[in-house]
Amino acid sequence: MSLDHGIDTAVVPVTTVAANDPPKSFGFGTQIRKSPYFDATVRWGATAFSVYNHMYIPRDFGDPEQNFWNLVTAATLSDVAVERQVEITGPDAAAFVQFLTPRNLSTCAVGQCKYVLITNADGGVLNDPILLRLAENHFWLSLADSDILLWAQGLAVNSGLDVKVCEPDVSPLQLQGPRSREIMQSVFGDKINDLRYYWFVEFELEGIPLIISRTGWSSELGYEIYLRDGSRGDELWERLMAAGEAYGLQPGHTSTIRRIEAGMLSYHADMDSHTNPYELGLGRLVDLDMDADFVGKAALKEIAAAGVQRRQVGLLIGGEPITGSNNEFWPIMHGGEQVGVVTSAVYSPRLDANIALAMVSIEYSELGTETEIVTPMARRSAKVVEKPFYDPKKSLAALKSA
């Protein structure tokens, strides 16, 4: 999600039907799961879906630019039940979770969230979930799009640790935007004002069991609402939409524009199992000096000592506004040689600029370096710039409680 977790994928349109026609069909079969909010999102105007963690996710409620403005001026409610949870419990759960990630978790308290990386033996990134610590030996990993449940279960078999790894009945919603606190307060009362950034609390709403965290994949003030009873999904969605009407709440989807403005990574786009944390500028999430072992520790020590050969950068791309976002990796050229690829690109109406995340050879990663992008339609000029592009200190998302 992840945190802050990637959800940029191809979309499948809803079949248009008349009022008396059979229910809408998406045609992927029973192997693609529907979220507890699926029917509600269709009622509220979802027109296209993609598949993420083997589930449908709504990716179109109309104009994506309007979705962006809804998010940054008021609030949006998004179905992100595709952020599946890997639940780890048992006497050795804390030791096992530390084995999964290079981030030092020794100071992670019960009730706290942490953005972590899951790495393989080569130091490559397998996922970038949000970790929630529910009890001393009870954890959730709130996933980006990859099969970490199977990875964790496989590691557990031969770990020698006493743990249970499963997927619980948990389905998140994201309520994000500057008016999200007012909406949450109207539903859950003043207690919500005490919730700190990257912490969570348990709530019950008219018998609906929830966990609510101050997190989200938007870099705006916002909340993730983890439903712990899938049978109550429709009810929860409608309750929140009704409460938010007075505050301008709109149904929506995670915003590619906003997440690229914030420099937030999308798994499979901006990183994958062949990308290491240092290339992403995420060395702060790797503690090579802690006593605890973790998967990939030896490889990451070698990478840290040798230095990286490429680096993720921000780009400003010239020319007319980009339509939509890139559906392939655009080559980056310098002097007739390919020196990298654009991984995520979009036009930001707020910045009136084409902005992008890219992976480039280290010698072309310095600020101010000028390159050329090869898009399907034309070549465009580009320049390496600071990222994130907007709100670099995340002051909006980390806004203090009232």
Report a brief summary of the structure.
The chain is an alpha+beta fold and 402 residues long.
Q: Can you give a write-up of this model?
A:
The structure is a single chain. With 402 residues, this protein is α+β, with helices and mostly antiparallel strands. Among the domains are: 164 residues, 2-Layer Sandwich (Gyrase A, domain 2), CATH 3.30.1360.120; 77 residues, Elongation Factor Tu (Ef-tu), domain 3. It contains 8 helices and 22 strands. It has a 6-stranded mixed beta sheet with strand order 13-14-15-12-4-16, with helices on both faces. It has a 6-stranded antiparallel barrel with strand order 17-20-19-18-21-22. The protein is globular, with a radius of gyration of 21 Å. The two termini are 25 Å apart.
Q: Look up the CATH topology of the domain at 12-83 and 170-261.
A: Gyrase A, domain 2
Secondary-structure element order, as H and E? EHEEHEEHEEEEEHEEHEEEHEHHEEEEEE
Largest sheet: 6 strands, mixed
Query: What's the assembly state of these chains?
Result: single chain
State the separation between the terminal residues, measured CA to CA: 25 Å
The CATH superfamily of the domain at 12-83 and 170-261 appears as Probable tRNA modification gtpase trme, domain 1
Query: Which CATH architecture of the domain at 12-83 and 170-261 is right?
Result: 2-Layer Sandwich
Find the count of extended strands (DSSP E, 2+ residues).
22
Radius of gyration from the alpha-carbon trace, in angstroms: 21 Å
How many individual helices? Answer: 8
